[in-house]
Specification:
Two copies of one chain form a homodimer. By secondary structure, chain A is an all-alpha fold. Chain A is built from nine helices and no strands. In chain A, helix 5 runs antiparallel to helix 9 and helix 6 packs antiparallel against helix 7. The structure holds a DNA duplex.
DNA sequence: TTAAACAGACCGGTCATCCTGTTTTTAATA
DNA sequence: TATTAAAAACAGGATGACCGGTCTGTTTAA
């Protein structure tokens, strides 16, 4: 009794698409306004969904937040901060290009919303251990990949050294983004890039 | 008719003390649980105050948050991150000692709550411009003081250079604290300090 | 006498979650 | 392949808790 032989269906189920759309919208809102300042109603409306649909895919707001971190923030960090850097000839040039690209984007846009990982990690790490672990997993992978690449570039580098170097790069980026968000300026990014250029091998 | 000639007063007004206690408690709760996750009731209870008292000193939660940033966070940054560093013979040794001190404190405590400035700045910067400006003012003063000291140490250093150097130090600290909060470990702090030791003049 | 300081209840609104019902899709069965 | 049972997907209203702000009243201090 879904529809008559010719009549259109009242709707078409697209679970994957619906889930994906909700995730996209939630990631965007959490990033721009923050997790606590975004209501599930906001997500429902912006996604053109309903409370029932959202509840079906994400029974609680926490489940939604966790999925955003694991499936969207992780992907974005990978796409903007890891893969392009790895594709560069040398890690140093890749890192500097990354800083420059982000700074350029900040200058183009009118608002600096900050690093999505940092934003959610800072807001949610102390609220719930699950959020903390999810954020930490992304940080750890990020550090691990950069450290590995530092060693590939210079096999003489001690593993301990490579890890510390990677940590500094990521910390400088995270901190610079925090300062950029507060000042609504890309200058901290450019300053840090200029200094890292001198340090990096 | 406040009290009988001998009877004790029902209470003793202590406006400054009350205000100060509320600020202390609010700063602590905002730092440990976050601004949005802390209700004004939480503050009232923890401070042993009443809704009326809190409302008398801080008409809105935003006013309370702003006062925490301007009167507590700023003070803490000054006391732990600026003055000790300035008192050191050279800025470099002061900065490294600061990193080491914070790392040691993290290792002693069981929980890493992060940098108070960063915590509140990240959570509130996009929520309200006033919060953003208040946070930015602290960042700017911090950068300014360190940059000035870099130049004092080495008059040959270009002003632009000194500022960038100061920005990197603070960004590395902020970012390392973010990573420390996510990993509940002081390692990012120590790694960054080790790398900064090589870069700083 | 007057204003400041504090007490404590109250209220309108929001929010996350739950619940009941409907429609679509899948899967089993014959 | 046709039928049907069952599950998944979605719709949308209901609810109860909580939160921030307000308001009135009382006590203390200037």
């Amino acid at each position: 009794m879904a529809q008559d032989s010719i009549g259109k269906p009242k709707r078409v189920n697209d679970p994957q698409g619906m889930r994906s759309r909700i995730l996209d919208v939630a990631a965007d809102l959490f990033q721009r306004r923050g997790y606590h300042s975004t209501s599930v109603q906001d997500v429902v409306q912006a996604a053109g969904a309903t409370g029932g649909a959202l509840h079906h895919h994400f029974p609680t707001k926490k489940a939604l937040g966790l999925a955003v971190i694991e499936e969207r923030v992780a992907r974005e960090v990978n796409a903007t901060a890891i893969e392009p850097v790895l594709r560069a000839d040398r890690l140093k040039t890749g890192v500097l290009a990354f800083f420059s690209a982000v700074a350029g984007e900040l200058e183009r846009n009118q608002a600096v919303t900050g690093c999505p990982l940092n934003n959610l990690a800072m807001e949610l790490s102390l609220a719930d251990p699950d959020f903390r672990h999810a954020s930490n997993a992304i940080f750890e992978r990020w550090v691990g990949v950069l450290a590995q690449r530092f060693q590939d570039d210079d096999p003489a580098l001690a593993p301990r050294q490579a890890g510390a170097l990677a940590t500094l790069v990521i910390a400088a980026y995270s901190g610079a983004m925090a300062m950029a968000k507060a000042s609504q300026s890309a200058l901290p990014l450019r300053d840090c890039a200029a200094q890292l250029e001198k340090l990096l091998p």
